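Example protein as discussed:

>
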Amino acid sequence: MAKAKEMTMEDLMASYGDINVPKEGDVLEGTIINVTKNGVWLDLGTFGTGLVVGPEVYDLESEVKVGDAMNASVISQETDEGYVLLSLRKATREKVWEKLARMMNEGEVFKVKPFDANKGGLLIEYETVRGFLPVSQLSTEHYPRVSDKDEILIRLNELIGKPLDVVVLDTDKAEQKLIFSEKAANKDKTEELLSKFKVNDKVKGRVTGVVDFGIFLNVQGVEGLVHISEISWDRVENPSDFVKIGDGVDVQIIGIENEKISLSMKRLADDPWLKKVKDLAVGDNVKGEVSRITPFGAFVKLPQGIEALVHISELSDKHIGSPDEVVSEGKEYEFKVISLDADNHKLALSLKGATGKKKADAKVAVKKEAAEKETAKKEAPEKEEKLAKKAKAAKTKKAEK
């Protein structure tokens, strides 16, 4: 009698056909068959029995009952006791990632509460998935308009635990990346507020930040910037010399773009520069003192209290390597006005233009004097003849008497 062939495990598995074995990370659906202190027991059908464990299960103990369906993810394919070990948290995270992707695509606005902060932004956990809200994505109301990084962190810490309306800006499950935006969530509201404004409107704003390049204002819920060049007609070295946070400021809208408004403080006051140049015109000759010499020309201080530029090409008819070959700081010269740009407060002068005019005037004077001498020379004989006749007539008249 022939000896029966010994069957291996592979042969046994093959005799049953393909068996679908759950892999770690798979999300399975089962029916609750028991709830104990150890966890929630599920009937997984062809996969046998599973046990859902983890601290999050205890929070659900009073909410679940036998017969309910539940999703859970595989932690271990099979324990020594023969059941599949499952995690509710991991399964929930899978569902949350799917939910977040849908919310991002639909632009859904929802509330979150930051649980921590760093100098770059706010840390947020949404239904077991952690994400980040960068400083740049905060709304106008919450953006920390300060330059000091330590002060930024102080401002951000004030937002911990505070409900914020946000949208999902970016999500990538593979990279575990989740970015929120409060600014985008307020986009429609901002656009509605902006529709009420137009360029040249005079409005009032509250100072929310003072930085090196200007002043940030909250104007009826919309962020606006007064650039340093629009603070005053005078030269501004430090914007903080003019306002402090919380001040109310009257401003004029000079631009509306990209959900922001550009503002001006100085345009609500008369431009003193225009008053100073009102009596000047192109072609006029003016006297001024050279205040600065640069490689490209010389700056001249005029009696009106304004500064004008004489480009190096306007200093001499000859080629020169440096302005100081022709002019010296502190000395006064006569110049000609060659251009006047009122909008940009620019006044250009020419030294060679004024010198050329002087030379031309001198030539005209010389020619005039020569002409006068020539005329006098031609008229001299006639005058002498007239004088002789007049003298003779007078002598005859005297003899007759």
